[in-house]
Design brief:
Blueprint: H1 26-33, H2 38-63, H3 66-80, E1 87-91, H4 98-105, H5 118-128, E2 132-140, E3 144-151, E4 154-160, E5 163-168, E6 173-176, E7 187-189, H6 197-205, H7 208-211, E8 214-220, E9 224-229, E10 234-236, H8 241-257, E11 267-269, E12 275-279, E13 285-287, E14 321-325
Parallel strand pairs: 1-3, 4-7, 7-8, 10-11, 12-14
Antiparallel strand pairs: 2-3, 4-5, 5-6, 8-9, 9-10, 11-12, 13-14
Amino acid sequence: MSGTIKRGTVRRPVQPKRKQAAKPSVIDRAITALPVSEATLRKAATWTITGVVGTGLIALASFFGIPAAIGTAIGEGIGDAGFRVTNIQITGLNRMDHNVIYKIAANQPSMAMPLVSLEKIRTDLVSHSGWIEDVHVSRRLPDTLLVSVIERQPSAIWQNKGQLALIAANGTWLEPVDPEAMPDLPMVIGPHANEQEPAYRTLLDVAPALKGQVKAATWVGNRRWTLTFETGETLALPEGDTEAAKALVKFAQLDGVRPLLGKGWLGFDMRDPTRLVARKPGITTNNAITDPGPAPGSSPAATPSGAPSPTPTASQSVAPRLTAVKRTSTDSQA
């Protein structure tokens, strides 16, 4: 008897389900868009973190003075190897003491060449004396400092409260002056007159013919000048640089037409731009001085003292009127 064999159903192997790929994050997409590889980015991040940590360690070490101590030790070591200042060469001195400059330059915490502060030497020297305008300091290895000093030049004598002193062209105080050994320099007198030295020289430059005849200048009320000439007369100028310059030029013109200096006048006052007031002992009289630049055909002349003043013609341009006033002493300089 035959039997029927039933075959079972063949089971197909179950295929594992595919996992869906995770969607990249915004940061991942941004990194992918960069024109550098991921490995490069990792290195950059590593160096950044290392730099931050290193900076923190350096700051902490600086707080405890470790770098300074290491630098000082290295500098001293270099000095012990032969690079130590043993010679200071100073140039440019005409008036200052060589030993004073040497002591200031050598006033260093250490003379090891790397530890010598050139800027400190320069600052100390410039602040030490008004004579020093500037200083250049340099090293010449292995053991020499070069100090080149630029000295100021005396420009005038400043008299203030009975004291005499040399001053530079910018008004810097230089040193006292011995009244028995006065240098051949112009003199400015009064409080703050030294500060007006540049303006005073500019004023004299507008009248070269008078510049050599001015002996001194008094700065009055911190606002104007009164000049004193070698012949003894004084000239009161108005306030203001421009006004004073115009008055001085006019006085030089008048003196060129009819000499005023050395003729016995006590002084002149040009604070009023319309007239020149002169002080002279004697009878009070009025004189008119013709403008140094009259119209063509006119004759610049002055009326003799005591004579009646002529009436100027239309072609004549009359200068500020010269009024001679009897005085036995100079007027107030206020």
